[in-house]
Amino acid sequence: QLHRRGFRCLHGVDGSEGMLERARSTGLYQELRRCVLGREPLPAPAEHYDAVTLVGALGEGQVPSTVLPELLRVTKPGGFLCLTTRSNPSNLRYKAELEEALGRLERSGAWQKLLAQEVEHWERATSEEESTQGTGYISGVVYIYQKCPVPPLEEG
């Protein structure tokens, strides 16, 4: 979808060589690198990207919420970050921790929240216990933040 909307310079990272091979086979990415998010720094210089997305990886047992400062590091001032997490019962503790970390960064002036939108039918549930009100789906949240510009130094 991003490619169809004009985004042509796409870089990707994943901790799995198999997933990187799948991404390579699409022909959509200019650069793909192996990186275990939350354990290794992203293979990019500071303030390099106009937009950073992390979709489907912020969840219990996956990428820790401690990755947020690293995502901010590689985003240009004024750039955008799009993040997602699930709202299913087994991810609620992680979601609460993530939202606390998101809020801390916003209160510190690192970024500004533009959107936090619940999506009712995020993905198919793998069990009835995970299903939102018996729909067969779990819900999720899309967060969009804008990195705050660095304030100019005061002279004097």
From TrEMBL:
Coiled-coil region(s): none
Transmembrane regions listed in the UniProt entry: none
Database matches in InterPro entries: Methyltransf_11 (IPR013216), SAM-dependent_MTases_sf (IPR029063)
Tell me where on the tree of life, at the top rank, the source sits: Eukaryota
The UniProt GO MF terms for this protein read: S-adenosylmethionine-dependent methyltransferase activity
Q: What's a Pfam family in this record?
A: Methyltransf_11
Q: Which species expresses this protein natively?
A: Ptilonorhynchus violaceus (Satin bowerbird)
- Taking every annotated instance into account, which residue ranges of this chain make up the domain Methyltransferase type? 4-82
Kindly provide the name given to this protein in its UniProt entry. MET27 protein
